[in-house]
Amino acid sequence: MAQPERHLHPVPDTEAGAAPLVPARQHIHTPAGRSWFAEQGQILGALLRSGVGRHAHLAGEWIADPAVETQARLGAESRRVRLQVRAESRITKARTDAQKADATNALARAQQVGVNELEISVRTAVTRACRALVCASVPVGVTAGPVYLTVTQGEWVTLLAWPGVAGYLLVQEWAAKKNGASAVRATEAPSSRGEVSGRPVAAGVSGSPVPAGVPGEDAPPTREIVGATPVENRILERLTEWDALARKRGLAGVRLGEVTLDESGICVVLDTHNTLTPAALTKKTDTVRAVLGVPTATRIEITHGDIGDQAMVRIRTREKELDTTWRPGCEGIGADSDTGEVVELPKGRKLIAGTSGSGKSVLLRVVMADALCADEPTTVVYIDGKGEESALWDGKARVAVEPEEILQVVRELVAESQERRDAMRAEKAATWAPTKERPRIVVVVDEGAEVIAVDHPDDLPILAGLRSLARTGRSRCIDLVWCTQKPTLGDGIDRQINGVMEIRAVLRTAGDTETRQVLGTRWPNHTWTGTGLCVVKGTGREEDQSPVRVWDLSDDAQVQSLPDRDPWHYRGPGSPAAGESALEVARRLCGAERGVHTAALEAELGTDTLGVHTAMAAFGIYPDKTSFWAEGTKARGYRREALLGDEQ
Q1: Distance between CA atoms of 568 and 617, rounded to whole angstroms?
Q2: What are the binding residues for ATP?
Q3: Rounded to an integer, what distance in angstroms lies between the CA atom of residue 431 and that of residue 629?
Q4: Binding-site residues, please?
Q5: Is residue 42 in some structural domain?
Q6: Contact 218, 290 (CB under 8 A)
Q7: Sequence-ordered list of residues with C-beta below 8 angstroms from that of 610, at least 6 positions apart, any chain
Q8: Which helix (H) or strand (E) holds 229?
Q9: Strand, helix or coil at 444?
Q10: Is the same domain home to 171 and 189?
Q11: Residues 547, 426: one domain?
């Protein structure tokens, strides 16, 4: 009887389909050379396929880059602005009434033209089509080019391009695999109520930010963050590939720091590390948006971090739900979009700027409503260069629309300012104390570019008076509020007026140039896409401030429900009620001469040029630059014929 085979160790049964167990000391005879080459070939093939796939993926991202649509929108807006600027320039240079009328019509048409979505779509489609052609031409050229040159010209050396490109792809993919993607662990910052924007905080997720992985180490497996939106999860997924994506976009060397998810969205710390400064990275906001695949409608802010080389990137995927509807009793101009705290503008000179559609008109309404509802005696003078809003403020403010009306009210304001100066000197007071009879005057100029366009040093010297008010009105409680949608010096704001505007509320701007003109560097307003957001400068709020969400006073009925006020008018010496003495003085000084010089009237009446012009304009008498001194020299003043009128 045969003895059963004995084993030193029990051999377990193998499951069906499983590989049989082999004793440890059994040697498997395998052709080692062929196995090693096959294994290496398999690795190289996988790397090559992965490299081709990675470049194809990057090409697709480049074609579908959200920044393409952003640039198309900016291009359309720039074209519209150029049309307006060209029309305004034509108005200024017009020599005849027909030319001026034609230019005015052109300006009206340009202002009515909005941003055409079809134009933006066409611009975007053309740009993406060009990018697609570029991406398609590269592989076609690499594949077919060497064959064509070899067959037609015998340049067989060009065939070396194939192994060269393959080697390039292999090296690139090998380096990417070796370095690994930077690890990203997003954690939700704790909320005082235990939730973030209405979403529960994920169980087991720490409430403090976790540093990103060290470059060179394998990234942990990515997962969706509980409580994050699909958009946030896509951005977080792309953050795990930051090194590779950033390198392709020209941000090589910018290292990823910690990432947190809080009530305002995703917060990312980037270390520029000798490659860029945080200020330079701010100029590449569109590039960062493209790298992370942030939707165009989502706001991105890049500010300085806690350390010199650090930049803080805030991706506003979430917004506090704030009730921004304006109601009687609302304080300030709006609420901080992060904290919800009310943001107020101090009394004094103010500059309000923002491109078309940014919410500038609504912010201006809030400022005017705040002045009308103030406890301190306050009146509003509204210079409406466009003439669109003036009807809403009739009976609530002194309104001036036509150039002659604007000139008249500016002259009255200058005369009031000088009278307050004299009263302050007599009372030895440094600042004016508003009373019911002589209240604080808030002078609102909207739109500044229109006022600049109609100003003329001889015929309509409007800017001279506004400059005087801007320089001297603060202590005399005459506050100039200059509003413009083109905050460029000389076009939308006068250089002298811009220099004294210490308080600035700036909404979305058309470009980086406009932002620098009114705020300086490092401000992100030109990168915004929303409406009704602004930053405030001159009140202590820093450059990295959260935007202010402006109170919504877009309802015309709410404006009309504001309390009525008696429109302000100048009542001092030289006003229409008491201006007759100025005419008598002018006639007396003229005597038998051919005219009287403005300087002589200034000395006699104790006022300046604008004060003289205001007093004389009440009688329909305006200066003439060809009036004469007694010795016969020409100078600016009033002719004898104009002074005597019907009595001559």
Answers
A1: 18
A2: 354-361
A3: 39
A4: 354-361
A5: no
A6: no
A7: 410, 411, 414, 415, 461, 464, 465, 468
A8: none
A9: strand
A10: no
A11: yes
Paired sense of beta strands 350-353 and 503-506, if any: parallel
Q: Answer yes or no: do 466 and 479 share one domain.
A: yes
Beta-strand pair 595-597/548-550: unpaired
Tokens standing for residue 566: 């008696």
Rounded CA separation 507/502 (Å): 16
Q: Is residue 322 part of a domain?
A: no
Burial grade of 427 (CB within 10 A; 0-12, 13-18, 19 or more): exposed
328: in domain? no
> In terms of domains, do 224 and 311 share one?
yes
Pick from 521, 508, 482: which is nearest to 355 by CA? Answer: 508
Task: Report CA dihedral (60, 66, 70, 75) to the nearest 10 degrees.
Answer: 10
Residue 648: how many other CB atoms lie within 10 Å: 8
- Residue 31: inside a domain: no
List CB contacts of 521: < 8 A, sequence separation 6 or more: 279
In angstroms, the CA 119 to CA 532 distance is 25
Chain centroid, CA 409 distance in Å: 33
State the residue for tokens 């340009």: 110
Q: Total domain count for the chain? A: 4
Which pair of structure tokens corresponds to residue 11? 């051999």
Examine the fold and report which residue of 316, 348, 370 is the final residue of a domain before the chain moves on. Answer: 316
Query: Domain limits at 159?
Result: 63-177
Single out the residue of 469, 479, 400 nearest to residue 434, CA to CA: 479
- CA 165 from chain centre, in angstroms, equals 44
Tokens of 311: 């930049």
Query: Residue ranges of the alpha helices (H) in 460-548?
Result: 462-472, 495-500, 512-519
pLDDT digits 0-9 by tens, 479-490: 999 999 888 877
| Contact between residue 240 and residue 256 where contact means Cβ atoms under 8 Å apart | no
**pLDDT value of position 562:** 92
At residue 328, the pLDDT reads 87
> Please, is 585 exposed, middle or buried when counting C-beta atoms within 10 Å of its C-beta (0-12, 13-18, 19+)?
middle
Same domain, 246 and 142: no
Going 557 to 570 to 495 to 279, the CA torsion angle's sign is negative
The amino acid that residue 586 corresponds to is A
Q: Are 524 and 315 in contact (CB under 8 A)?
A: no
Last residue of one domain, picked from the residues 529, 560, 591: 560
**How many CA atoms, within 13 angstroms, populate the side-chain half-sphere of residue 640?**
12
Pairing, β 199-200 against β 299-304: unpaired
Same domain, 428 and 486: yes
Residue 523 gets which letter from DSSP? Answer: -
Residues 423 and 514 reside in one and the same domain: yes
Low-confidence ranges of the chain (pLDDT < 70): 1-36, 40, 111-115, 173-227, 274, 572-581, 606, 625-635, 646-648
